[in-house]
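INFO batch 0412 | record 1 of 1 | parsing
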Amino acid sequence: MPPRPWDTDDAAADFNGDGLVGASDILLVLSAWGPCEQETVSDTLSPQS
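INFO prediction complete | emitting C-alpha cells
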C-alpha cells in the first residue's frame, strides 16, 4: 500500500503527535483559537441607530 500523507511522523498538521492528522488535531486548533478582536459580520450588517 502506498504511504498516505496523513500517516507520517513529520506531518505539520499533526498537533497531538499521534502520527495521524485527524479530527483530534482540528479540535486542538479550535480549542486554542482566541477571541475575535475585529468587527464581526453581524456587527457590520446591523442597522445603524
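INFO post-check: The two ends are 63 Å apart (CA to CA).
INFO record closed
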